[in-house]
């Protein structure tokens, strides 16, 4: 059985401390074990594996990447129920993968990182957690960019007297039938949950949706897999891998439109306008939901239900800015007060300012948050950071995607991290970190490649951009290019130090 958190008076010595049990942390655990790196512990602040797919349980939660590709290449699943699988099914998949790989005995749940400091003399990270102390040769962070909900700064929101919760922390104990509900935000989560919420509140209830900027939303080409297809995936050698490859090729074919030829995205805009026209006849509402920027500048969403929900009699789309929240209402800048019983916040996450960075202190005594706060997030190959020896960040700066599956990126990074661990063991290295020159060159090249992309030229302000206006979130190229960059551990780009202490020597014995 997986371990529960427990106080520990003495630090637990461990080669690798993996932070987070989502897709990234789980992949790291499995591949470390396969590589013979068996001295590792995975700590997870929540109560089970699955990461965002364990936590996000709001109504309508589903993946917007086809599940044939939104799954591990080393753990294909012939039993997906449909093209875009629901949250519960994806979480159950991660749980089954963890059980089949027999790694759960090294997972410690309900345990969060409080402080991690590099100890140069011991060549280890001294890590304080809510469940005890660790002294780790490496930290492999899979904490994820969608792990910490971002709450809006709205005057009076703390004084709201009704039920209030973030979409990522859904309160299933609240009976929403017949209630007046406000939803702040119209991003990916809201597009999935509002159509369900519209049905749940019923004709006696009402939903107000507060929108700052509309999104481009294309139809969701959804269908269920037949029993025959599932049987064929299970029994015909190579069939499911071929289906996965076809999905990959289809999605990868879209990348040039995002990265080099944004004008091609006019085709997507036409799809979106047809999607609007199919469901909405009111010209005023059509104008409200039609973006004025290039498709792809913000994340393109997929839904067949969003526009019909907005057109429903029990839903209002509000585009006037929110001025304040009172004890029982939302007040907009035009002075209109709309009374509500429940406030749902769907305003995203701390993507460009990951909270875990505040808890990691590097070689020079500065936190990762301090370093990134000066010029924005940066990492060599999106994975390692100068000044932070033996720290690996999965789904790090400029590794997210606007067109394909993050699992492909995660597996690419995990392969690189495992190669680094092997090199450290093989060469007797106690500390590695990318040189300042290597990291600066990589970052400059990524930002140069970002210039012609739709995320830079598309005419919008998105959560992809940091406070400096730089896109430190997305990878500006093909996913196979990223994988090629990380195909081998390039020790020549790193400052390395040999093992220098008995503690470190003992850990490698």
Please indicate the count of domains.
2
Q: What's the architecture of the largest domain, going by CATH?
A: 3-Layer(bba) Sandwich
Give the strand content: 15-25%
**CA(first)-CA(last) distance:** 27 Å
Using only C-alpha atoms, the radius of gyration works out to 23 Å
CATH topology of the largest domain: FAD/NAD(P)-binding domain
Q: Describe the sheet with the most strands.
A: 9 strands, mixed
**Form type:** globular
Which CATH C-level class of the largest domain is it? Alpha Beta
Backbone structural class:
alpha/beta
**Which regions have little confidence, pLDDT < 50, spanning 5+ residues?**
503-509
Mean pLDDT equals 93
Give the helix tally: 16
Q: Work out the helicity level.
A: 25-40%
User: In the CATH hierarchy, what is the superfamily of the largest domain?
Assistant: FAD/NAD(P)-binding domain
Number of strands: 21
């Amino acid at each position: 059985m997986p371990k529960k958190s427990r106080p520990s008076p003495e630090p637990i010595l461990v080669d690798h401390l993996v932070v987070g049990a989502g897709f990234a942390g789980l992949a790291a655990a499995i591949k470390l074990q396969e590589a013979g790196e068996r001295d590792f512990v995975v700590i997870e602040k929540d109560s089970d594996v699955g990461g965002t797919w364990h936590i996000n349980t709001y109504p309508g939660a589903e993946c917007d990447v086809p599940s044939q590709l939104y799954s591990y290449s080393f753990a294909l699943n012939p039993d997906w129920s449909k093209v875009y699988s629901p949250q519960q099914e994806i979480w159950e998949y991660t749980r089954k993968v963890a059980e089949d790989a027999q790694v759960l005995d090294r997972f410690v749940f309900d345990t969060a990182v409080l402080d991690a400091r590099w100890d140069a003399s011991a060549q280890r990270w001294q890590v304080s957690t809510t469940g005890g102390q660790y002294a780790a040769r490496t930290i492999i962070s899979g904490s994820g960019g969608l792990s910490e909900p971002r709450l809006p700064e709205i005057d009076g929101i703390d004084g709201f007297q009704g039920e209030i919760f973030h979409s990522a922390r859904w309160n299933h104990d609240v009976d929403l039938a017949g209630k007046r509900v406000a939803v702040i935000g119209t991003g990916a989560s809201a597009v999935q949950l509002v159509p369900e919420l519209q049905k749940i509140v019923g004709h006696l209830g009402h939903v107000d949706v507060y929108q700052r900027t509309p999104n481009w939303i294309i139809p969701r080409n959804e269908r269920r897999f037949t029993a025959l297809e599932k049987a064929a995936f299970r029994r015909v050698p190579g069939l499911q891998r071929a289906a996965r490859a076809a999905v990959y090729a289809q999605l990868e074919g879209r990348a040039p439109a995002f990265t080099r030829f944004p004008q091609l995205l006019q085709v997507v805009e036409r799809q979106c306008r047809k999607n609007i026209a199919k469901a909405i006849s009111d010209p005023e509402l059509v104008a409200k939901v039609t973006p004025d920027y290039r498709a792809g500048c913000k994340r393109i969403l997929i839904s067949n239900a969003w526009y019909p929900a907005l057109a429903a009699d029990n839903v209002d789309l509000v585009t006037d800015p929110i001025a304040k929240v009172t004890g029982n209402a939302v007040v907009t800048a035009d002075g209109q007060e709309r009374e509500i019983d429940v406030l749902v916040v769907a305003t995203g996450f701390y993507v460009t300012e990951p909270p875990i960075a505040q808890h990691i202190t590097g070689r020079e005594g500065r936190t990762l948050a301090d370093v990134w706060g000066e010029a924005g997030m940066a990492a060599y190959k999106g994975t390692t950071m100068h000044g932070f020896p033996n720290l690996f960040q999965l789904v790090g700066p400029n590794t997210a995607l606007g067109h394909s599956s993050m699992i492909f990126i995660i597996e690419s990074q995990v392969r690189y991290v495992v190669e680094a661990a092997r090199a450290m063991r093989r060469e007797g290295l106690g500390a590695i970190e990318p040189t300042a020159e290597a990291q600066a060159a990589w970052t400059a090249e990524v930002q140069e490649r970002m210039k012609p992309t739709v995320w830079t030229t598309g005419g919008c302000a998105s959560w992809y951009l940091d406070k400096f206006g730089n896109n430190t979130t997305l990878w500006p190229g093909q996913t196979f290019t990223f994988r090629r960059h990380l195909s081998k551990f390039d020790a020549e780009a790193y400052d390395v130090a040999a093992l220098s202490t008995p503690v470190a020597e003992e850990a490698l014995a």
